[in-house]
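dude i think i finally got it to work??
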Amino acid sequence: MAIDILPFAFGLSLFSFFSSVAGIFLAVRRGRDGATAEDRRIAALRRQHEKAEARRLKTIKRVAKELRPKIIQALARYGFSYIYERQGAMTRMSTPVIRTILYTKDAIYFRIDRLPFRTTFTDLLKPEVEQNLSLAIGRECQFQHDVDIGVWLQVGLRSGVSAIPRFFPYTSKENPQNALELLPATKNWAVPIGMTTNRRFVYEDVRDFPHLLVAGATGGGKSVFMNQMLATMISRNTPKQLELILIDLKGGLEFWPYHNLPHLRRPVVIDAEEIPEVLGDIKKEKERRFALLRRAGVKDIRGWNHTKAAKLPYIFVFFDEIASLMLNPKLKRVVDGLINDLAAQGRALGLHLILCTQIPNRDVLSTIIRGNIPSRVCFNTDETGSMIVLGNHSAAQIPPHGRMIYRRASYQVECQAPFISEAEIDAAVNGQNLPQNAEKREVTINDLFTASLYGFAGKFTVRALYSAFEGDASETFIRRAAKEYEYSFEQQGPVIEIDGSRFVLGRVPMRGGRGRFLVPLADGEPLPTTQEEMEALAAPAVAAAENADDVLESVAWEEE
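look at this
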């Protein structure tokens, strides 16, 4: 009986073995099939994308083929042609030659290889030719030229979508692409600059300019731009945060809507005889603030406002037409002197100048103004004015209404400025756009460390920082920042950078126990690897902090 069972058991074990092998084979097959299915899906998506790109390129080439004769015909109608005659009869007409065409996702570029006899590229590059071409073919056109690459006509593929829009509203219930909607709600000092290509919205913190020059011919949009800046600033900041000095020597009509604003430091200035007194007041305020910040041991107004109970408002001085001052020799010296004084210290003290002019020549824009005001907005003007304001001719080649060039240091961009109506100005003045959190500040981790360094000599204590920010930064937020940025000897970090200097947040002995402290690191100095090294690095700064008499005191003052 046992002999009969053995073959059966042997067969059963073979069956189990082959079943296992089959199971493994099927599992591998299923995994391979799954991977193959995923590869097939990715390959199908890739083919679909390639087909879509090929169709798009085919469409662009078709559009380019249709536009080429339209451009040539339009140029011929505008005088870029030459008629050859024989015995009084026309034999043929020569037109511009366009052979080379390049494509991008946003535009088509046509190279103007040759012009007809007795026509010049100088005439071709005139602004009116560009505008007439845009109207003729129904797309945004712009000439690009260089000695090395020649003359190219850039044609936007989707005028008003990828190109710069012709109109950009300040507010609009129907269009969400308006300046006030696109402006970050938490950044009270952000002001709209304009809309550039591909619907990219450009805005800036008005405190970072720190001074701004706005220039352009009459009717270009200079006054509208200045009004939308004012409307934005008063809508997002209270009189305790912002004070304005408005100077309009053309009768005060431009600034009349703002004459009852609580933000005004003084009534709108309309008489040239008041200018010395106004500029003297600004100079006195500069000296007073400089003394306050020096006594408090802080570097700038932001450090002061982060740590002191009595806040300093930012002061912005708007000159509607600087030419009224600069063409007066006596006032010119005073204005140049003020600009020279504020150039180095104005930003730190919260004193800013906004200078506007429709006469951008060398008599009005002195060397001192051009040398000390790095931020510029230039609307349509002649080539001489564009060269003085921007250092190039780009503002002479833009459309006349609302289009401008914004330049800050080496950065330059063409934008359509926001258009604000009188009703929208009135709404801003009446407080209808004032956000509910106008008093609320957006506190960042960098703000915490800056306040700790400048306001508390490097001590990082939750209660002191919470009190300094008056509840704008919660205790939970401050504790989380302290925990996340506390120095780890194992990870050798994190390292905190404040105004170009390096620090680490460590626990070191201080009066009353151990506490967190911003320990300074010298240039090239290695990071501490032990607690003893940390304490040795911190000792001089801790001693200085504990010996300071006014580390946690607020400096009060009497208004003059």
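Residues 432-440, 548-560 have pLDDT under 50 and may be disordered.
im so relieved honestly
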